[in-house]
Amino acid sequence: VAKEEGPGLVRSFEPVMLYARQLRREMASELRSAVERDELRLVYQPVVDLVTGHMQGVEVLVRWQHPAQGLVMPDMFIPLAEESGAILQIGRWVLRKALEQLAEWRRHAEHREDFHVRVNVSAAELQAMDLVDYVRSVLRDTGASPQELVLEITESAFVGSGDVETYSMRSLKALGVRLEIDDFGTGYSSISYLRRLPVHTVKVDRTLIADICGDEGQLKFVDAVHQLIRAAGMEAVFEGIETQQQAGKLREMGCCSGQGYYFSRPINEKQVGTLLASGSRLPLATELVA
Ligand code: C2E
Ligand code: MG
Ligand code: MG
Ligand code: MG
C-alpha cells in the first residue's frame, strides 16, 4: 500500500486517513449507480459580455446529491469518476440533460439564437470513439443546433494528445459544435497546440487573473496571454472574475467574455429562465458599465 503514496511519503495509519480512503472507495462504487438513481443535478453559471453585462450563455456544472453525504462538488467526484470510467456515463447524462434544459428555456423565454450552453468534457470522453455520434444524436433528439453547444475540454487533456482526440475534435468541429480549451495556463502542455487544434475559444484559468489588480506584472502577463490567444485566431474567455475591479481591468484590455462570482454564482434552471425572460442583464451589469 505504501507504494501507492509515492516515494518520500511517510505512511500514516491515522484513523482519519483510513476513513477518508474508505469513503473515497465507497463513493467510487456508489458513483456508478448515481446516474441510474437520479442523484446528479445541474447548475448553470452565466457567461457574460464584459462590456454590456449581457448573458451570452451558461456553463453547465454538475453536482451530486448524495443520499448520506449531502451535496458533493465535482472537484471531489469527477476525478473518481475519471479513474473508474463512470465519467463516460455521467458525461452522457450531463450533455443530454443540458440540451433538454436548453429546449425547455426556449419554450418559456424569448428565442435567442446566440444563447449557448457550455458543457465540460473529460479527456476520457474525448478518447471514446463514439463521442461524436452521441453528440450528434443528442442534438437531433433535443432539436438544438450545433452552434448552441460549446464543449469545454480541460487543457491537461491535451498533454500528449494523440490521433483519437484530434480526430474527435475535427469531427465535432465539422458537425458545427464549438470547442474550447478550459483551464488554460494550468497544464504543462506546449502552447504550440493552440495553432494546431480546431478550437474556437480559450478559457483562461482563474488563477491567472486572481491578482491582476494588485500586481502590475501579472496584469501585463495576462494582457500578453490575451494577445497570444487572439494571435492564434481564437477568442478568450476569463473565468473566476470575483470583483468589479477585475472585470474593469479585463474590459480595458479589450477582453470580451467572462464569468465569475462577481457576475453570478452558478444558479438553477429557474433562475436562468428568469434572467432570459428579463433581458439577460445580470444584476451587477449597470454598476459595471457605469
Ligand atoms: P471548470 O470547468 O473550470 O468550472 C469553473 C469552476 O469554477 C466551477 O466550479 C465554478 O463554480 C467555479 N467558479 C466560478 N466562478 C468563480 C469565481 O469567481 N471564483 C472562484 N473561486 N470559483 C469560481 P465547480 O462547479 O466546483 O466545478 C469544478 C470543476 O469540475 C470544473 O471546473 C470542471 O472541470 C469540473 N466539472 C464540473 N461539471 C463537470 C461535468 O459535467 N463534466 C466534467 N467532465 N467535469 C465537470
Ligand atoms: Mg469549464
Ligand atoms: Mg475544467
Ligand atoms: Mg476552469
Please give a quick description of this structure.
It is built from twelve helices and nine strands. It has 290 residues and is of the alpha/beta class. A hairpin with a 5-residue loop joins strand 1 and strand 2.
Q: What layout of secondary structure does this protein have?
A:
Blueprint: H1 15-34, E1 40-49, E2 55-66, E3 70-72, H2 74-84, H3 87-108, E4 116-121, H4 123-127, H5 131-142, E5 149-154, H6 163-175, E6 178-184, H7 193-196, E7 201-204, H8 206-209, H9 216-231, E8 235-238, H10 244-252, E9 257-258, H11 269-277, H12 285-289
Parallel strand pairs: 2-4, 4-5, 5-6, 6-7, 7-8, 8-9
Antiparallel strand pairs: 1-2, 1-9, 2-3
Helix pairs in contact: 1-2, 3-5, 5-6
Bound molecules: ligand C2E and magnesium ion (3 copies).
Number of strands: 9
Strand order of the largest sheet: 1-2-4-5-6-7-8-9
Radius of gyration equals 20 Å
What order do the helices and strands follow? Answer: HEEEHHEHHEHEHEHHEHEHH
GO cellular component, one term: membrane
Keywords: Membrane, Transmembrane, Transmembrane helix
Protein name: EAL domain-containing protein
GO biological process, one term: signal transduction
What does the model show?
It is built from twelve helices and nine strands. The longest helix is centred in the middle third of the chain and has 22 residues, at about 85-110. It is an alpha/beta fold and about 290 residues long. The protein has an eight-stranded mixed beta barrel, surrounded by four helices. The chain has helices spanning about 15-35, 75-85, 85-110, 125, 130-140, 165-175, 195, 205-210, 215-230, 245-250, 270-275, 285-290, and strands at about 40-50, 55-65, 70, 115-120, 150-155, 180-185, 200-205, 235-240, 255-260. The protein starts with 14 loop residues before the first helix and ends with a helix. Helix 10 links the parallel strand 8 and strand 9 (about 255-260). Residues about 285-290 have low confidence and may be disordered. Bound molecules: ligand C2E and magnesium ion (3 copies). One magnesium ion (MG) binds near residues 182, 183, 205 and 239. Ligand C2E binds near residues 74, 120, 121 and 182.
